[in-house]
């Protein structure tokens, strides 16, 4: 049950976030959400295999090459989260405001088809967003910590 961790953390009678289910319609799309929670960060989400593979990026996605930013992988989010914006109420997981910062599509470069599993050490994707464009790499440092940079 791939979304179990996501659903376990949230009380859907209190938050308007989608409860969600697997849905292939967001495969190949991405979103970056600016999330003003207890700490401001950007959530980088890639539609893949019916979910959104997700990372919290404290410094945001670098727009030029030469900058490597930490990206902390978090639980897979439901496909419907790709459109989520609004306020997560106080006392709920991730309380704060969510805005959509960028969106678009991506294509796998290094692995075709792309798979992101516990064993994935790195991958490259070609980003076609409004702000994020061109080839990006993610390199895993350990279980949850990755670096994201523009190639
Ligand atoms: Mn977040």
Can you give a write-up of this model?
This protein is mostly beta strands and 151 residues long. The chain has 1 helix and 9 strands, in the order αβββββββββ. It has one helix at 4-8; strands spanning 29-36, 40-48, 51-57, 68-78, 86-88, 96-108, 122-129, 133-140, 145-150. The protein has an 8-stranded antiparallel beta barrel with strand order 1-2-3-4-9-8-7-6. The longest helix has 5 residues, at 4-8. The model has no long low-confidence stretch (mean pLDDT 96). Manganese (II) ion (MN) is lined by residues 35, 37, 41, 43, 56, 94.
Low-confidence stretches: none
Number of E-type strands: 9
What are the bound molecules? Answer: manganese (II) ion
- The Cα radius of gyration reads 15 Å
Element-by-element helix/strand order? HEEEEEEEEE
Structural class: mainly beta
Cα separation of the termini: 34 Å
The main β sheet shows up as: 8 strands, antiparallel, barrel
> How much of the residues is beta strand, in percent?
over 45%
Which range best describes the helical content: under 10%, 10-25%, 25-40%, 40-55%, 55-70% or over 70%? under 10%
What is the averaged pLDDT score?
96
Shape field? globular
Tally of DSSP helical segments: 1
Strand line-up of the largest beta sheet = 1-2-3-4-9-8-7-6
């Amino acid at each position: 049950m791939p979304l179990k961790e996501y659903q376990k953390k949230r009380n859907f009678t209190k938050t308007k976030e989608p409860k969600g289910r697997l849905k292939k319609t967001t495969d190949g799309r991405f979103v970056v959400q600016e999330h003003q929670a207890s700490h401001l960060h950007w959530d980088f989400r890639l539609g893949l295999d019916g979910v959104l593979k997700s990372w919290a990026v404290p410094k945001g996605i670098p727009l030029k090459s030469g900058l490597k930013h930490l990206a902390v992988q978090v639980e897979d989010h439901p496909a419907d989260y790709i459109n989520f914006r609004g306020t997560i109420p106080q006392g709920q997981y991730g309380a704060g405001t969510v805005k959509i910062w960028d969106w678009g599509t991506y294509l796998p470069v290094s692995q075709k088809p792309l798979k992101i599993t516990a064993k994935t050490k790195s991958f490259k994707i070609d980003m076609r967003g409004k702000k994020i464009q061109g080839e990006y790499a993610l390199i895993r440092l350990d279980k949850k910590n990755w670096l994201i940079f523009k190639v």
